[in-house]
From TrEMBL, chain A:
Pfam families in the record: NADHdh
Protein name per UniProt: Membrane bound hydrogenase, MbxM subunit
Species this protein is from: Thermococcus kodakarensis (strain ATCC BAA-918 / JCM 12380 / KOD1) (Pyrococcus kodakaraensis (strain KOD1))
InterPro entries linked: ComplexI_Subunit1, NADH_UbQ_OxRdtase_su1/FPO
Bilayer-spanning residue ranges: 6-27, 64-86, 98-119, 131-150, 170-188, 227-245, 251-268
Subcellular location(s) of the protein: Membrane
This protein's GO CC annotations: formate dehydrogenase complex; plasma membrane
Biological process according to GO: anaerobic electron transport chain
Topology in membrane: Multi-pass membrane protein
Primary localization class, coarse: membrane
Keywords: Membrane, Transmembrane, Transmembrane helix
TrEMBL record, chain B:
Topology versus the membrane: Multi-pass membrane protein
Domain NADH:quinone oxidoreductase/Mrp antiporter transmembrane: 122-420
Main location: membrane
Subcellular location: Cell membrane
Transmembrane segments: 6-22, 69-92, 104-121, 152-172, 201-223, 235-258, 278-296, 303-328, 334-353, 374-394, 406-431, 452-473, 500-522, 598-615
UniProt entry keywords in alphabetical sequence: Cell membrane, Membrane, Transmembrane, Transmembrane helix
Highest taxon of the lineage: Archaea
Pfam family membership, one: Proton_antipo_M
UniProt GO cellular component terms: plasma membrane
Protein name in the entry: Membrane bound hydrogenase, MbxH' subunit
Keyword Transmembrane helix: yes
C-alpha cells in the first residue's frame, strides 16, 4: 500500500521548491540591484552559481563532520519543507504540527554550525557565536508571536490554521495577530539572514562567518540548502499569517510579497552589532509580543 | 516476602560488601551486580504492574515501632525504573573511573536511598531514605571538596528539616503518617476546613523548600554547580540523572497528597490553581536563569551542572501546569533528562579520565581521538537541544503543547528562550572540546575504556528508541495517569490540538539526508587537509597559532547581561553564612568572656527572673 500519489507530489514539490528558492535568491539580488540603480545579474544567476560550484574539479575537507554538516543542514531543510502544507498539497503536514516545523526550521542552523566549527577557522567560530546569540535573542519574540497565533486559533496543526483562516479571514485581520505579525516579520528578517540582522555571515566584517571555509560542492550544498530554506520559510509565513493558499500561484504571490518586504527593509538598513541586536530583540519585539499574547488570552 | 526489599537493599548490601572486600576486580563485580539487580527485578515485575494498575504490590515492615510501607504502583515503578537504569550506567562508568571502595559504598548507598524515596508510601520511610540519599551524596562530594560539600549539606539539611516540620504539622493535624490515610484525611479536610488557610500555606511552603532544594529550583539551586562538579563524574550521572528527580517526585507527591486541600485553601488565580501557578513560575525562572548561567560557564562540569538545573526546571514547569498533558510532558521529561544528561556526564567522565582537564581552554580537536565518545556526545547533544527524532524533543514537544494549551503563554515563552539557550550551550561544548585545533599535550589521548563505553551505550539507546517510538512511554503514562492523556500509537503522539509522528519525521530526515548525500557524492572527491591549512585573511598559519576561541566564547552575551550578573544568590548565601558565623563569634566572645563576675551576674539575673515569675 505505497501511496504513489503522495510520493509523486513530494518529488514534484521538492523540485519546484528548490527551483523557486533559487529564483527567490535571484529576485533578491535583482531587486537589491535595482534599488541601488544597477542592472544586476539575471534572475537565474544563483542556479548558475550553484552548478558552477558543483562542477569544481576538487574540493577540500577538514574531516567527517565538516562534510556531514552541510548534508545534515540540507536534509533537515528538506524534512522541514515536507511538513508544511504547500498550497493545495498537504504532503506530510498532518503528521507534525507548528512546534515540530518551527524546530525543524532551526535544525539546519545546527548543521551549518557543526560543519563550520569542525573546520577550526576562527572566523567560522565568530560566525557560530554570533549565529547562536542571534538565535537566543530572537527566540523569545519569535516564541511569543507563535504563542499568540496558537492561542487565537486554538490549534497547533498547520492545515487547521489554514482552514480556519479560510473560514474566518486571514490572521492579519485580527488586531492582536497583526501585532504578532509585526513581531514575526522582524524575527523573519533574522531568520532569512538579511540586514539589519545578517550578523551571522556578515560579509565584509568576518568574511562570511561560518561559511568561510566552504568551497566547491560543500558551498553548492549550502546554496541549495539556502534556497530550500528560503522557500520553506516564506511558505511558513504565508501559512501562518496570510491564510495559506489554494494553488501554487497564489502561494507564489504571497511568498514574493513577503520576500519584497524583507528586501526593502534589508536594502536600507545597515547591520546591527550582535549586542545591539540582542538588546533590540529583548525590547520592542518582546514588548509587542507580550501585548499580542495577552490580547489573545 | 516479595521482591521489594530485594530491589531496595541489594545496592546497599553490594556497596557495603564492595567497601569491606575492596579488592580490585571483585568490588567492581559486586558493585555492578548490585546495581543491575533492581533493574532486573523491576523489569520482571513490569507485567504485574501494568496488568493491575489499581492493585499495587506493597510490602510492610516494622522499624522501631513505626510501621513502614513500600508500594510499587505505576508511578513508583516508572521513577524507580529510570533510577535503576541510570544506576546501572553509573556502575559501569565507575568501574573505569573509581579506584576505591569508599566511592562504591556511598554511590550504591545513595542508589538505595533514591529507590527508597520512590517506593516509600509513608512519611517515616520516605524521610529516612531521603536522609540516607542526602548523606550518601554528601559523602561523595566531601571527599573532593569540603566547601562545596558543606554548602550542599547545609542547604539539604534546611530542606530536610523543613520537610520534617511539614510532616510534623500534618501528623499533628491528621494523626496519620502513611500516604493513603493522609491523602484521605486531607481530602476530607478540604471540605471541612479544619486546617486553616495559613497552616496549609505554611505546609506548602515548607514542602516547596524541601523538594526545591533537591530539584535545584531557583533560588535554591546554588549547591548544584559545586556539588555536581566536585565528585566522581560517573557518580554525577546518577546524582543529576536520578537523584535530582527525587525533588521532582516530591512535587508530584504534593499533588497526590494535598492537591484538593491546596486547591480549596488557596483557590485559583486567573483560572489556574494558585499553588500550581507558583510551581510553574519557579520552574520557568529556573529554566531561564540556569540556562543563561550555563551558557557563560568556562568549565565543562559547571556547564552541565547549570544545564541540569535548567532541565529540571522544565519538569517543575510542566508539573506546575496542573493539566494531564502537563504531567505527561513532565514525566516524559524525567525519563529523557535522565538518559541524555546521564549520557552527558558519562561523556564528561570519559573526557576527564582520559585528559585530566576540565576547563574549556585546555581542550580541542578530541573528536578524532575519541570517536565513539564523540558519537555518544553528539546523540546527547541532539537529544538535549531537542532535535527530532530524539527523546528530548518528544518530551519538550509535550511540554510546549501543555504550556500553551493551559493558557500560560509567558511560561511557554520561557521554554522557547530556554531551548535556544540550550542550543547555545551544547554548541559551546561541541566546539570547545571536540573541534578545532588540538593542543599538543592532547596528542596521545586514547578512546575511553570499555566499561565506560558500555555505560554510554546503555543510556544512548533509550535516547533513540524513545525518540522514534515516544508512544512506548506515553502509553505507559496514560495508564499511570488513569486516562487517555496522549493519544496515538507507538510512533505517533496525538493531543487534542496537535500531532507529532516521530517515525515520519525520522524517515523524512533520512530521505532528506539521502538526497543531500547524493548531491554530495555527485560533486568532485574531497581532499583531506589539516586544520592549520585554513583561511586566515590570506596569511599562512602554523601550529603555534591558536586558531580556536577557547575563552569567553559568549562574551557579547556576558556584556549584554552585565547588569543582571551582578546579582547572585550564591554571593547572597555566602554573605548570610559569613554573617551568622560572625554572629556566633560575637555571642561566644560576649558571653563566655572568662570573667567570673560576669558568670555570677548571669546567675543573679536568672534568680531575678525566677523571683519575678513567682517561683521563688
Amino acid at each position: 500500500m505505497i501511496d504513489w500519489k503522495l510520493i509523486l507530489e513530494t518529488i514534484g514539490i521538492l523540485i519546484y521548491a528548490t527551483f523557486m528558492g533559487f529564483i527567490f535568491m535571484g529576485i533578491e539580488r535583482k531587486a537589491m540591484a535595482r534599488i541601488q540603480r544597477r542592472v544586476g545579474p539575471p534572475i537565474y544567476q544563483p542556479i548558475i552559481d550553484t552548478l558552477k560550484l558543483l562542477g569544481k574539479k576538487e574540493s577540500v575537507s577538514h574531516g567527517f563532520i565538516y562534510d556531514f554538516g552541510p548534508v545534515f543542514a540540507l536534509g533537515a531543510s528538506i524534512a522541514a519543507l515536507l511538513f508544511i502544507p504547500i498550497a493545495n498539497f498537504q504532503l506530510f503536514s498532518t503528521n507534525a504540527d507548528l512546534i515540530v516545523v518551527a524546530y525543524l526550521l532551526e535544525v539546519p542552523m545546527l548543521g551549518i554550525m557543526l560543519g563550520a566549527m569542525s573546520s577550526g577557522n576562527p572566523y567560522s567560530a565568530v560566525g557560530v557565536q554570533r549565529g547562536l546569540l542571534t538565535m537566543v535573542a530572537m527566540q523569545l519574540p519569535y516564541g511569543l508571536a507563535l504563542i499568540a497565533l496558537i492561542q487565537h486559533w486554538g490549534t497547533f496543526k498547520l492545515n487547521d490554521i489554514v482552514a480556519l483562516q479560510q473560514a474566518h479571514g486571514w490572521s492579519i485581520t485580527v488586531p492582536a495577530l497583526l501585532l504578532a505579525l509585526i513581531v514575526f516579520d522582524i524575527v523573519f528578517q533574522a531568520m532569512l539572514g538579511l540586514e539589519p540582522f545578517d550578523i551571522i555571515p556578515a560579509p565584509a566584517e568576518i568574511s562570511m562567518g561560518p561559511m568561510v571555509e566552504y568551497g566547491g560542492k560543500h558551498a553548492a550544498l549550502l546554496f541549495t540548502q539556502h534556497a530550500v530554506q528560503l522557500f520553506a520559510e516564506t511558505a511558513f509565513f504565508a501559512v501562518l499569517f496570510l491564510g495559506g493558499a489554494s494553488n501554487l500561484l497564489e502561494l507564489l504571490i504571497k511568498q514574493i510579497a513577503v520576500l519584497f518586504i524583507s528586501i526593502f527593509i534589508a536594502s536600507i538598513y545597515p547591520r546591527f552589532t550582535i549586542d545591539q541586536a540582542a538588546k533590540f530583540f529583548w525590547k520592542w519585539p518582546t514588548i509587542i509580543g507580550i501585548i499580542a499574547v495577552l490580547l489573545t488570552m | 516476602m516479595n521482591e521489594i526489599p530485594i530491589i531496595l537493599f541489594t545496592p546497599l548490601l553490594a556497596g557495603v560488601l564492595a567497601w569491606l572486600i575492596n579488592v580490585k576486580g571483585v568490588r567492581e563485580l559486586i558493585g555492578v551486580i548490585g546495581a543491575a539487580t533492581p533493574l532486573a527485578f523491576l523489569a520482571k515485575l513490569y507485567p504485574t504492574i501494568v496488568n493491575n494498575p489499581n492493585n499495587p504490590i506493597t510490602y510492610q515492615m516494622t522499624v522501631s515501632g513505626f510501621k513502614v510501607t513500600f508500594t510499587l504502583g505505576m508511578l513508583n515503578w516508572y521513577f524507580a525504573a529510570i533510577a535503576s537504569l541510570v544506576g546501572l550506567a553509573m556502575a559501569f562508568g565507575m568501574v573505569s573511573t573509581s579506584k576505591n571502595g569508599y566511592d562504591w559504598l556511598f554511590a550504591l548507598m545513595s542508589y538505595t536511598g533514591v529507590l527508597g524515596v520512590f517506593l516509600s508510601w509513608d512519611f517515616v520511610s520516605f524521610f529516612l531514605l531521603w536522609e540516607l540519599m542526602t548523606f550518601a551524596s554528601f559523602m561523595m562530594v566531601l571527599k573532593r571538596n569540603r566547601h562545596e560539600s558543606l554548602k550542599y549539606f547545609v542547604l539539604s539539611v534546611i530542606g530536610a528539616y523543613a520537610m520534617l516540620l511539614a510532616i510534623a504539622l500534618i501528623y499533628a493535624k491528621t494523626g496519620a503518617l502513611d500516604f493513603d490515610s493522609i491523602r484521605q484525611a486531607l481530602y476530607m479536610d478540604a471540605m471541612l476546613g479544619s486546617i486553616s488557610k495559613g497552616e496549609t500555606a505554611l505546609i506548602f511552603v515548607l514542602f516547596l523548600t524541601a523538594f526545591g532544594v533537591k530539584a535545584g529550583a531557583w533560588p535554591l539551586h546554588v549547591w548544584a554547580p559545586g556539588a555536581y562538579s566536585e565528585t566522581d563524574q560517573s557518580y554525577t550521572t546518577f546524582f543529576s540523572g536520578a537523584l535530582s528527580k527525587a525533588g521532582a517526585y516530591g512535587f508530584l507527591l504534593l499533588y497526590i497528597l494535598m492537591g484538593a486541600k491546596l486547591y480549596y485553601a488557596l483557590g485559583t488565580f486567573h483560572g489556574h490553581l494558585t499553588f500550581a501557578y507558583i510551581i510553574a513560575w519557579i520552574g520557568a525562572i529556573t529554566v531561564v536563569v540556569a540556562s543563561f548561567l550555563a551558557v557563560l560557564q568556562e568549565d565543562i562540569r559547571k556547564l552541565f551542572a547549570y544545564s541540569s538545573v535548567g532541565q529540571v526546571g522544565y519538569i517543575l514547569l510542566a508539573f506546575g501546569l496542573g493539566t494531564g498533558l502537563g504531567f505527561a510532558g513532565g514525566l516524559f521529561h524525567v525519563l529523557s533528562h535522565a538518559v541524555f544528561k546521564g549520557l552527558f556526564w558519562l561523556v564528561t567522565a570519559a573526557i576527564i579520565l582520559q585528559t585530566g582537564k576540565t576547563q574549556f581552554k585546555d581542550f580541542g580537536g578530541l573528536a578524532e581521538k575519541m570517536p565513539f565518545t564523540f558519537a555518544m556526545g553528539l546523540i546527547a547533544v541532539l537529544s538535549l537541544a531537542g532535535i527530532p527524532p530524539m527523546a528530548g524533543f518528544a518530551s519538550k514537544w509535550l511540554i510546549y503543547e501543555a504550556a500553551i494549551s493551559a493558557h500560560m503563554p509567558l511560561v511557554a515563552g520561557a521554554i522557547f528562550l530556554g531551548s535556544a539557550l540550550a542550543f547555545a550551550y551544547v554548541v559551546r561544548f561541541l566546539y570547545a572540546v571536540w573541534f578545532g585545533q588540538r593542543p599538543s599535550d592532547l596528542e596521545d589521548v586514547k578512546e575511553a575504556p570499555l566499561p565506560l563505553l558500555i555505560a554510554m551505550a546503555i543510556l544512548a539507546i533509550p535516547n533513540i528508541v524513545f525518540g522514534i517510538a515516544p508512544g512506548l512511554v506515553t502509553n505507559y503514562l496514560n495508564k499511570a495517569l488513569g486516562g487517555e492523556v496522549v493519544g496515538g500509537n507507538y510512533y505517533k503522539l496525538v493531543t487534542q490540538t496537535g500531532t507529532y509522528n516521530a517515525l515520519t519525521v525520522a524517515l523524512l530526515l533520512v530521505v532528506g539526508l539521502a538526497i543531500a548525500g547524493l548531491i554530495y557524492l555527485y560533486g568532485a572527491k574531497a581532499r583531506r587537509i589539516p586544520v592549520t591549512n585554513t583561511y586566515q585573511s590570506g596569511n599562512p598559519v602554523t601550529e603555534e597559532f591558536n586558531l580556536s576561541i577557547r575563552r569567553n566564547f559568549y562574551l557579547p552575551l556576558k556584556e549584554a547581561l552585565a547588569f543582571w550578573l551582578r546579582y547572585s544568590f550564591d554571593k547572597f548565601y555566602e554573605r548570610i553564612a559569613q554573617l551568622s558565623e560572625d554572629f556566633a563569634d560575637t555571642l561566644r566572645e560576649g558571653f563566655y568572656n572568662g570573667n567570673v563576675q560576669a558568670y555570677s551576674w548571669y546567675l543573679a539575673i536568672v534568680l531575678v527572673i525566677l523571683a519575678l515569675w513567682g517561683v521563688l
